[in-house]
Amino acid sequence: MRERAVYVTSVERLSGKSVVAIALACLAKDEGLRAGYFKPVSLSCVPGPGGELVDEDVETMEEILGLEVGTCPLRLSGAELLRDYKDAEPSSLRERILGAYRRASGGKELMLIEGPHTLSAGSFLGCHVPRLASLLGAKLLIVMRYKDDFVVDEALQARDYCAHWDASISGIILNRVEAGEMEKAREIVKPLLEREGLKVLGLLPEDKVLGSLTVREVHEAIGGELIAGSGGLDNPVETVLVGAMTPESAIQYFRRVKNELIVTGGDRTDIVLAALEAGASALILTGNLYPSVKVLPRADELRIPMIVVPQDTYTTLQQVQRIVGRIKPRDTVRIAAAKRLVQENVNWKEALCE
Length: 354
What we know:
Radius of gyration: 22 Å
Strand content: 15-25%
CATH class of the largest domain: Alpha Beta
CATH topology of the largest domain: Rossmann fold
Number of helices: 15
Distance between the termini: 16 Å
CATH superfamily of the largest domain: P-loop containing nucleotide triphosphate hydrolases
Largest sheet: 6 strands, parallel
Structural class: alpha/beta
Helix content: 40-55%
CATH architecture of the largest domain: 3-Layer(aba) Sandwich
């Protein structure tokens, strides 16, 4: 019979929830705990090779813990979510989730449960995080991205929302804390939250290994036609920028950062040239528009990939942002980085065992 259920969740996208869940799974395994994993609702599924819906986070956790398929009973695609489930009966969905959870948790000492990108996601199905946490008897571990002082307000709002559903918060992890903000996070933010009854279990610094991608990973995720610069597919991507300004402004803008991926309209040859001269990691050209053929040899020479996609710039930007920080099942480098980051900066034994 399981002794503890930890529901790892967040209040917004790109908080690092999955990274923390993966690290906790690795640490639980190292401790010899009989650990299981469960994701009641996945809203980030994509079609797999056979047309089935696939969630890479689920696949990664199943691989780490050696679990059988079936740890995610409700796999949804956000594209047609309302249309596909407009006639669904919430109570039957919750029963389906509860039955799957009973099977997944059999014989486990610890269950790691992962929520979608926000606490409220799935509300129209009656399957939002606080309600499911109460149903499954799990305590919430909330991972929050530290962006500014308003993280305190967001944490308190999350506390009050969870309390409405009688869901208990075991702790908060503040993630992606920049070096210049770490002292404030430790000396001011943490005491403020704990005074309000929210235990801060860790402060995770920004980690470039976890936050970065390669151009190859971006290309695999969004597709498109590689028209030049194939020699640079392993270039690192740390920052994503939109090229929608004059060439003069663009060259200065691009030179302020490094390892940048530029997303711009394919007809903006002036921006393409500015990005090449600034040493960008890659360019994604949107709208199925191609630049002048004159720039292609220069991209090959500089080993800067240029990828043409049919989507508009906004949609492409969203697609790229969805894969930032995502760890694939056999991505041993990022899995090790996630484990080390949590092990060194989080009171993980309390998160797992107390």
